[in-house]
Structure formats: C-alpha cells, structure tokens
Amino acid sequence: MSQQVNRAATQSITQKIFNKETLKYVMTTHFWGPVSNFGIPLAAIYDLQKDPELISGPMTGALVLYSGVFLRYALAVTPKNYLLFGCHVVNLSAQLGQGFRYLNYNYFDSKNAATSTEEKK
Asked: What is the percentage of the chain residues whose pLDDT exceeds 90?
C-alpha cells in the first residue's frame, strides 16, 4: 500500500514540475539569462576567501551598481523575473562583502593603509 502512495506522490510531483508551462519557461531567456549570470556572484563568493590585496575597488563598485540597477529591472519586466532578482541579490551581497574587505584592507586597517600609501608614492 505504501508503495502505491509513494508512486502516486512521485507521479504527482513529477507532473507538476515537468509540465508544458515549466518546460516553456526553461526554454526562455527569462531562465537562461539569470542562470548564466550566476557565474558572477559565485565567483565573488569564491573570492571572499582570497587575499583582500587582490580586490579591485573600482570593479567592485561597478558590480555593486550593476546589481543594484538590475535588482530593479528584474521586477520591472513583465513577467517579473524572480530568478534574475535572486541572482542580483546574491551578487549584491557578495560584492558588498568584497567592498567592505577592500575598504577595510586599504583604508581602515592602519597597518595595511600605511603600507598602501607608501607603495602608491
């Protein structure tokens, strides 16, 4: 009896996931654009473990602005693109973390800030 219940539940879930609407959505840029875009926040998350000396301040700032703009865009299009919105929430969070690390390393940590200032001269 429990095998029949499990089979029925599995079949019901499968039919809900693999229906025409879902497959139609997966074949659009509303799906593949954000999926391919997830490389940026994944790289930023990975880079959170690297030496803060390697962080580019201008690039981090540009990526913060980029994600901020596209957060709004993802909800302004019709239909709303929640996958793109989620991608940019993750990216914005990771880039803000990188930005904090950059500022802390270059300006707030007195040991590193003094070294950075001397190297720039």
From this structure: 44
